[in-house]
Amino acid sequence: MKSELKNCLISVNAVHAGQTKITGVCKKGSDYQVFASNNNMMISKRENVNNDGTFSLSIPPQLEGQLLTVYLYHDKNGGSFEFSIALVVEAAELDKITSVEDYCLFSDLDGFIRGTYRGPNATKIFLTIDGVDTAILTINPGEGEFQYFLANLPIDVLSEVFISIVDKQEKILDTQKLKIVP
């Protein structure tokens, strides 16, 4: 998810339990740095802000409910704090399919189902067409896009097609029904 600069100084993406990165955007400039603390204890190194205003801080995994503070630091003229923003660590992200495009039988000429997913345990994807499972394809854990070639599979507008993501042991983590349109 892309962060937007909401208060004109710094904006931070949500942090979930177990996550080891804090990302966001802030004032652009080579003389700006950011760092994070938990209960007034520094939990990241001071990192330079990228030229486009984005930043990424490595942190140890945090527990849900922890209060974190991200500081924007101006390193010019001896250094000064520009701003800080506090956030609460949210519940761990679930492994899930986050979107699936409708599949149009007659106009999706390339024959792919496309969608997005997220989750640290999602490693594979497969389809179930009218109760029959298809081949399992590998995906990268984390957050990403998938596409599954469907054109050579036996489907029509009455078919029930489900997309599932699974973990390494092929345990189903999430399933979404594919909407098929004529």
TrEMBL record:
Q: Which Pfam families match?
A: Big_15, Big_6
Q: Which residues form the signal peptide?
A: none
> Per the database record, which ranges form the Bacterial Ig domain?
11-76, 110-181
Name of the protein this chain belongs to: Bacterial Ig domain-containing protein
